[in-house]
């Protein structure tokens, strides 16, 4: 809900800093000074009416001053009032025009009092509201450049051979060729060829998977070695990547019945109706002047400053607290949504654990040469193949002559070299290679987190790898559980560290759609889910969740889709934010209660003829000061 600017047009897709309203503080200061001076003169004239030329001069000065202020400072109010929906500006406009018209009527006829200062004060409050209230909607720009493979070309098999064409020309059932290092351009099934394929964008799995004929692959995955022939199952414009992009572009969230929005739907029409009814009733039981001034008192005392300023300012204050925690909200109702959360769903890879694997253990057989560790380190430094990456620092590199590295698609690499006068062949491979070439080796499973070393056909060692959990992640889960939240893990990876499975349930091996489907099912069952993730494979689930936080992600699409971004990996900030959201909700309830009670009493007195318009203006100012003070008070996180 924007402050006194509910009809503001949607900004173009620019950075948040550029969407902040450009408000002249000099203009606000001038309006405040002019309003104070006008109030002083108007009060003096109303208490001690002047006559003759002095009356004409003073009334003329006040009429011209407030008229100029109205002409120069009210265009935004007029623009935002001329929309086919209820806005706070419409009630501001009634107060402005009513005050000026009544004052002008009094200046001309000499009947009643003048309220030129009310015009200036209302304008000052409106522009102050624009200056202190953040009115922005996170927009998306250039998502196409942030998703790998979205705008690639495809190498298509045809009767004349291979032709390279735009991805938009690809249709289901075509055969494509994808070579080592290339991104798969369309969804499909591997027809021939073995390769390690990195699917980090879709599964979050940091280690590449060895895929074979019959395996399903998605556009955006990268072939790391070997060449595959793919039979497409989608067109070039109907891939999962395209669906993800559309999901990202459609993530602008509606206000979703915020508290201030609910009040607007009945408050403004009610005030207008009561003011008109007051004028009608007093026209029969009193004079036209009484009817006009009592109706004006209703509109002035019911000025929407409390609703238009207090709620947005309180939310802005809480958003500042969030930013100090390192959480950048992207939707105006993020705090409101966060206050109703009862379930926390974590992605694992890149969120609860680091996206890179670390060497856990390396074992070398006693019969192996003592230099084998140095050989492994040297081979790693000359190879970009993923299966050798974690071996970079296991030892100081050695000097190897005639080093030649050959990929073994979907299995590993073979390195031939000379050390001294002896030639060697060292294979770094996975369990599949051993099962094929060493029948005596019977792995329990195809463990993608272990590799083996084969020197001259003999198994000489192996290495295992593990994920590193984020510091404080397990403690944060314990705190969330202690606070009464449901907590679980949704991951595309195949395994979850025991430090997490011993605490909370987890679902593994999930695709992007499966994650989103689980979130939707839980939401339909009545749960309010906060999804915390970091990758492109989390975007659709983020959109389906009640609220979402992108955790220090390098994937801009995830940050764009999420309703907030955490700029670091300190999970205690999320816990504090959850507490802060509940405190903020209680604060907004107090503000709304005060505003409603004040308006009910003030409108009743004004309609009864017991509230002079000048007193109404003073009460309006007092109310505005009160709610601004309450809104400016920083909420403390509730425990």
Produce the secondary structure layout.
Elements lengths: L15 H4 L5 H23 L4 H22 L1 H7 L6 H22 L6 H17 L20 E6 L2 E6 L8 E4 L9 E5 L2 E4 L1 H4 L5 E3 L4 E2 L4 E2 L4 E5 L7 H10 L9 H27 L2 H14 L3 H20 L2 E3 L4 H5 L4 E4 L6 E12 L7 H10 L19 E8 L3 E8 L2 E8 L1 H7 L12 E6 L2 E12 L3 H10 L3 E5 L7 H4 L4 E2 L4 H13 L4 E5 L5 H6 L2 E5 L4 H6 L2 E3 L5 H36 L5 H20 L7
Helix pairs in contact: 2-3, 2-6, 3-5, 3-6, 4-5, 5-6, 5-10, 6-11, 9-10, 10-20, 10-21, 11-20, 11-21, 20-21
Count of distinct structural domains = 4
Averaged pLDDT: 76
Proportion of helical residues: 40-55%
Structural class, from secondary structure content? alpha+beta
Q: How much is the radius of gyration in Å?
A: 34 Å
Task: Give the percentage of residues in beta strands.
Answer: 15-25%
Query: What topology, given as strand order, has the largest sheet?
Result: 10-22-21-20-11-18-19
Shape: elongated
Uncertain segments: 1-23, 133-143, 250-257
The tally of helices reads: 21
Beta-strand segment tally = 22
Q: What do these coordinates show?
A:
The protein has 639 residues and is α+β, with helices and mostly antiparallel strands. It folds into 4 domains: 254 residues, no CATH class; 106 residues, Calcium-transporting ATPase, cytoplasmic transduction domain A; 117 residues, HAD superfamily/HAD-like (Rossmann fold), CATH 3.40.50.1000; 115 residues, 3-Layer(aba) Sandwich (Calcium-transporting ATPase, cytoplasmic domain N), CATH 3.40.1110.10. It is built from 21 helices and 22 strands. The strands form 5 sheets. A 7-stranded mixed sheet has the order 10-22-21-20-11-18-19, with helices on both faces. A 6-stranded antiparallel sheet has the order 12-17-16-15-14-13. Strands 3-9-4-7 form a 4-stranded antiparallel sheet, with no helix packed on it. Helix 6 packs parallel to helix 11 and helix 10 packs antiparallel against helix 20. The chain is elongated and about 120 Å long. The two termini are 27 Å apart. The N terminus is likely disordered.
């Amino acid at each position: 809900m924007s402050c006194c600017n509910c009809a503001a047009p949607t900004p173009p897709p620019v950075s948040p800093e550029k969407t902040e309203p450009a408000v002249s503080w000099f203009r606000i200061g001038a309006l405040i000074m002019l309003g104070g001076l006008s109030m002083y003169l108007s009060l003096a004239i109303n208490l001690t009416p002047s006559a003759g030329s002095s009356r004409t001069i003073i009334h003329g000065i006040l009429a011209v001053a407030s008229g100029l202020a109205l002409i120069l400072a009210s265009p935004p109010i007029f623009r935002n009032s001329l929309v086919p929906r209820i806005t706070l500006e419409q009630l501001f406009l009634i107060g402005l025009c009513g005050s000026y018209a009544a004052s002008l009527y009094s200046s001309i006829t000499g009947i009643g009092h003048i309220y030129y200062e009310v015009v200036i004060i209302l304008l000052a409050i409106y522009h102050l509201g624009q200056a202190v209230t953040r009115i922005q909607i996170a927009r998306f720009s250039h998502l196409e450049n942030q998703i790998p493979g979205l705008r690639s070309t495809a190498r298509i098999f045809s009767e004349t051979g291979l032709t390279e064409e735009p991805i938009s020309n690809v249709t289901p059932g075509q055969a494509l060729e994808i070579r080592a290092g290339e991104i798969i351009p369309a969804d499909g099934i591997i027809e021939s060829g073995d390769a390690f394929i990195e699917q980090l964008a879709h599964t979050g799995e940091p280690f590449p998977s060895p895929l074979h004929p019959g395996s399903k692959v998605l556009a955006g995955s990268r072939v790391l070695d070997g060449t595959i022939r793919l039979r497409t199952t989608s067109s070039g414009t109907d891939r999962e990547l395209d669906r993800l992009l559309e999901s990202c572009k459609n993530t602008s969230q509606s206000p979703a019945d915020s508290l201030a929005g609910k009040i607007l739907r009945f408050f403004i029409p009610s005030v207008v109706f009561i003011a008109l009814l007051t004028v009608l009733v007093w026209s029969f039981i009193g004079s036209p002047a009484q009817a006009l001034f009592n109706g004006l008192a209703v509109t002035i005392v019911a000025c929407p400053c409390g609703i238009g300023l207090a709620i947005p300012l309180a939310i802005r204050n809480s958003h500042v607290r969030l930013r100090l925690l390192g959480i950048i909200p992207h939707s105006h109702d993020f705090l409101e949504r966060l206050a109703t959360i009862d379930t926390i769903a974590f992605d694992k890879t890149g969120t609860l654990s680091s996206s890179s694997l670390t060497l856990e253990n390396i074992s070398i057989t006693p019969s192996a040469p003592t230099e084998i560790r140095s050989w492994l380190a040297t081979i790693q430094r000359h190879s970009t193949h993923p299966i050798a990456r974690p071996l970079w620092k296991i030892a100081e590199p050695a000097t190897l002559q005639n080093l030649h590295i050959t990929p073994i698609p979907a299995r590993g690499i073979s390195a031939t070299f000379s050390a001294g006068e002896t030639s060697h062949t060292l294979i770094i491979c996975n369990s599949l290679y051993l099962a094929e070439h060493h029948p005596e080796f019977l792995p329990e499973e195809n463990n993608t987190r272990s590799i083996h070393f084969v020197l001259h056909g003999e198994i000489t060692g192996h290495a295992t790898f593990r994920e590193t959990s984020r510091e404080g992640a397990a403690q944060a889960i314990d705190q969330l559980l202690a606070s009464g939240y449901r907590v679980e893990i949704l991951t595309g990876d195949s395994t979850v560290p025991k430090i997490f499975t011993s605490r909370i349930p987890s679902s593994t091996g999930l695709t992007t759609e499966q994650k989103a489907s689980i979130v939707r099912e839980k939401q339909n069952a009545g749960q309010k889910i906060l999804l915390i993730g970091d990758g492109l494979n989390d975007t659709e689930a983020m959109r389906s969740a009640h609220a979402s936080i992108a955790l220090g992600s390098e994937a801009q699409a995830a940050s764009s889709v999420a309703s907030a971004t955490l700029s670091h990996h300190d999970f205690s900030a999320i816990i504090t934010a959850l507490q802060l959201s509940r405190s903020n909700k209680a604060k907004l309830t107090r503000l709304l209660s005060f505003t409603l009670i004040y308006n009910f009493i003030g409108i009743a007195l004004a309609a009864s003829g017991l509230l002079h318009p000048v007193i109404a203006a003073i009460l309006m100012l007092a109310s505005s000061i009160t709610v601004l003070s309450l809104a400016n008070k920083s909420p403390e996180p509730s425990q």
